[in-house]
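Q: What would this chain look like folded?
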Amino acid sequence: MTNLIQAGDIQMAYRLDGPADAPVVCLNHCFTTDHRFWDLTAPALDEYRVLRYDSRGHGASDKPAGDYSLSQMAGDVAALLDALDIARVDFCGVSMGGMIGQTLTLEHPDRVRSLTICNTPCQYDDDQLVAWRERADLVLEKGIDAVHAGLMARWFTEDARDKQLPGYTYVDDVMRDFKPECFASATAAMCGLNTTQRLGEIKQPVLMIASSDDPGVPIAVAKMMAEKINDAQLEWIDPSRHLSTMEHPSVFNELLVKFLARVHA
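A: My prediction, written as structure tokens:
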């Protein structure tokens, strides 16, 4: 069950599970989804206090009109932690969630003990920016169905589709209900991503998850990010496309649990 709480200027939906005195792991979903993205991972984190939430414009959280920014969305996380009286978290985010995680770590470093970023770039190139803005315009004009199939093909392999893996069916369903206005608002935030020159400022331990066939994060970008971050552990999950954590949840869960054990050793 989720709860609602005032966090800054919005009401945020969240779920908090696990031992009250355990370290808090904060999980942030990808674009167009919600906290249920983590249903395949949360059970593996039974030694931790697990915080899942719906980002601004997603799920049951408020959906203000207008363009969002990553700084604003990272501020939402800090406000949520304040509202829940949580000092620091091990933050884990996928794609958009990893963009928020990078921004949170750079702008609110005292709130982040460690950072896990999955299939997440540090900056979009010009072609990617054009493609995302065109998708947003198309969704506003014709609805989410206009981009649904294309995004699913970018995010999952044909094998995941053919086998109807649980992660695939969840994303397939939840994306269909995503509001066009929220698609445009959150796209504006993602298009503002540019942490490339600041990655060296991240002092926390970082786990990076990447995939060789990810159309959103080329191999060279993932390797460059790992080189720029001081304490980065880069792991590859293949075969998968953009949502590797959903195609191979058991592999991802094992990597995350081992990383957190090292952080808290």
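Residues 126-142 form the longest helix (17 residues).
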